[in-house]
TrEMBL record:
Keyword ATP-binding listed: yes
GO CC terms in record: cytoplasm
The protein's name: Chaperone protein HtpG
Transmembrane feature ranges: none
Gene3D superfamilies associated with the record: 3.30.230.80, 3.40.50.11260, Heat shock protein 90, C-terminal domain, Histidine kinase-like ATPase, C-terminal domain
Gene: htpG
Functional note: Molecular chaperone. Has ATPase activity.
Organism: Fulvivirga imtechensis AK7
InterPro entries in the cross-refs: HATPase_C_sf, Heat_shock_protein_90_CS, HSP90_C, Hsp90_fam, Hsp90_N, Ribosomal_Su5_D2-typ_SF
Binding-site list for ATP: 32, 36, 77, 82, 97-98, 169, 339
This protein's record includes keyword Cytoplasm: yes
Keyword terms of this UniProt record: ATP-binding, Chaperone, Cytoplasm, Nucleotide-binding, Stress response
Subcellular location as annotated: Cytoplasm
Record-linked PROSITE patterns: HSP90 (PS00298)
Pfam families, A to Z: HATPase_c_3, HSP90
Length: 630
């Protein structure tokens, strides 16, 4: 038998496009060829289960090998094979998928969804790295004659008879000069590890040495010898394909360590197992949260029937869960023709919604069943919950029952619980509840102590997205305001309309203001004299809650708030007219002394906000020594 012909495509110009641009990464050629080999093997197993295979299946291991001298890479299987007519049909007619036809043929005879191929283009990825491709194949059908197909990357091919005893297919790639990087053992192994690690049929690549016990020595200790074994690069039954009821915690932890060998153990996990209205399996792990928000993304791996596709899963997984780790496997996720990235459609949205629901249900279950354990994990899982509440209304509706607020005393409250906790003492004159919080307990300690002196509770809001979460809570919680402890004097943060009489006259207040304006000499300080409790600080420096939030949002890249980041900081300097130090300043006989004391009080306020540095800090220390010696 000998035949020559022309590959059936509509225009010769499309072939180099397929060869060079169909796949963004040339290494994918190996994934496609191995997937085809697995596909052929799965078809054979399917036929055998239907009683349509006359011979024994035997060993169905797919083998990948290379020859550096001959510059070839070979992928060999013992699958269904092809006749010469089938080669012409499936190989020469680009985009005619044998898998699609096979599934259609046997769709009424049970489950055929484990067939991988879909578009019929994967085979041609070989030409991205090969200057010539040989395909030698023999069909499983009784009396079938082996065939050999050869093509040099043009639209011309040749089919001849071949000398092949076993059924199955060999694809031999004669590697092009510009792709010799792939003629390397560890390069090939790394590609197989990446894309084929969990294929459902064993894939062999070379051999490995293994130490096995070989009797005992004279001291009755075991002896070992080195033996050569096939190197099987894949686990054909990964954890996500098994029933959750058959697995233990240690199984999940072991699998996680295989996926992420350099990571700490996860907090907990969710096993996905859905077969209607779409097929979805997988395991999602909650890692211990880190502060490098972006770096942690792209840790979820997407598979389609155990073939690795991508770790770009932003459409399948909700944005707020992109920080999770794990695997998702679904044949129902639509891919582009090169199986390189996702195409959004209604199935993707349904899967996205299902994952959101499963995560919310899992968190709710953990909170309800073991609140103490849940609270101990909150510092790590809080970022997921808050991010989810910010970005998904449906998630918020569930999460509001298990989202926690943490106080400086390390106590945890749900949103409803905290409202009850503070409503007696932290309600202002307008019947608004005021939640006080700190973003930096060490730097804001002066203000925290002022709040505690009034028995006010202070929340800890120092997470990476808490500046957004504070705004969000105000929008969601009725008649509730959130204010940072250093946003104003304590009497103004929770204004209960309790007037304190001033010990200063109006003229004295004006004099105090003038003294401080001269001593401070800072146009970005809005100076005022207030009648506060004598126990309050003599001078307090604050940035209004509104201004500071705008600044924080700008730092976080808050879109329309960006311009705020370029505006100079504006502060409120509040002088406590009832404090003894202010009276001492007024009584000082010399203006120089008044200025010295006013500057000292101002620097103390600056110091409490960690705003004193450089020469100002040096001068403050010197002045403190001078005043102490008086």
């Amino acid at each position: 038998m000998a035949e020559k012909g022309t590959i059936s495509i509509h225009t010769e110009n499309i072939f180099p496009i397929i060869k060079k641009f169909l796949y963004s990464d040339h290494e994918i050629f190996l994934r496609e060829l191995v997937s085809n080999a697995v596909d052929a093997t799965q078809k054979l197993k399917r036929l055998s289960s239907l009683g349509e295979l006359k011979e024994e299946i035997g060993d169905t291991t797919v083998e990948v090998s290379f020859d550096k001298e001959k510059k070839t890479i070979t992928v060999r299987d013992r699958g269904i094979g092809m006749t010469a007519e089938e080669v012409k049909k499936y190989i020469n007619q680009i985009a005619f998928s044998g898998a699609a036809e096979f599934v259609e043929k046997f769709k009424d005879k049970g489950d055929a969804k484990d067939i991988i191929g879909k578009f019929g283009l994967g085979f041609y990825s070989a030409f991205m790295v090969a200057k010539e491709v040989e395909l030698i194949t023999k069909s499983y059908q009784e009396g079938a004659e082996a065939a050999k197909w050869t093509c040099d990357g043009s639209t011309e091919f040749e089919i001849t008879t071949a000398d092949k005893e076993d059924r199955g297919t060999e694809v031999i790639l004669h590697i092009a000069d510009d792709s010799e990087e792939f003629l390397d053992e560890w390069r090939i192994k790394s590609i197989l590890d990446k894309y084929c690690k969990f294929l459902p049929v064993p894939v062999k690549f070379g051999t490995r040495e293994e130490q096995v016990e070989d009797g005992k020595d004279k001291d009755d200790k075991p002896k070992y010898k080195s033996v050569t074994k096939d190197r099987i690069i894949n686990d054909t039954e990964p954890l996500w394909t098994k029933a959750p009821a058959d697995l233990k915690d240690e199984d999940y932890l072991k699998f996680y360590r295989e996926l992420y060998p350099m990571s700490e153990d996860p907090l907990f996990w969710i096993h996905l197992n859905v077969d209607y209205p779409f097929n979805l399996t997988g395991i999602l792990y909650f890692p211990k949260a880190k502060t490098d928000f972006e770096v942690q993304k792209n840790k979820i791996q997407l598979y389609s029937r155990q073939v690795f596709i991508t770790d770009e899963v932003k459409d399948v997984v909700p944005e707020f869960l992109m920080l999770l780790h794990g695997v998702i496997d679904s044949p129902d996720i639509p891919l582009n023709v090169s199986r390189s990235y996702l195409q959004s459609d209604s199935s993707v949205k349904k899967i996205n919604n299902h994952i959101t629901k499963k995560v919310a249900d899992k968190l709710g279950e953990l909170f309800k069943n073991d609140r103490t354990s849940y609270e101990s994990k909150w510092d790590d899982i809080g970022i997921f919950v808050k991010y989810g509440m910010l970005s998904e209304e449906k998630f918020y509706e569930k999460a509001k029952d298990f989202a926690l607020l943490k106080t400086l005393d390390d106590k945890f409250f749900t949103l409803d619980e905290y409202k009850e906790h503070v409503k007696t003492n932290q309600e202002d004159k307008d019947k608004n509840l005021v939640y006080l919080y700190t973003s930096d307990p060490a730097k804001q300690d002066t203000y925290i102590q002022a709040a505690k002196s009034k028995s006010y509770d202070v929340l800890l809001m120092n997470g990476i997205i808490d500046s957004h979460f504070v705004n969000f809570l105000e929008q969601k919680l009725e008649k509730t305001q959130l204010k940072r402890v250093d946003a104003d004097t304590m009497d103004k943060l929770i204004d209960k309309d309790e007037k304190i009489e001033s010990v200063l006259s109006k003229d004295e207040e004006e004099k105090v203001k003038e003294i401080f304006e001269k001593a401070v000499n800072n146009k970005n300080m809005n100076i005022s004299v207030e009648s506060l409790s004598p126990d309050e600080m003599p001078v307090t420096i604050t940035m209004s809650e509104f201004m500071r939030r705008m600044k924080d949002m700008a730092k976080m890249g808050g879109g329309g708030y960006a311009m705020m980041g370029h505006m100079p900081d504006q502060f409120d300097l509040t002088i406590n007219g009832n404090h003894a130090i202010i009276g001492k300043i007024l009584r000082a006989k010399k203006d120089e002394k008044k200025q010295q004391l006013a500057k000292q009080a101002y620097d103390l306020a600056m110091l409490s906000q960690n705003m004193l540095s450089g020469s100002d800090l040096t001068n403050f220390i010197k002045r403190s020594i001078e005043l102490a010696g008086e």
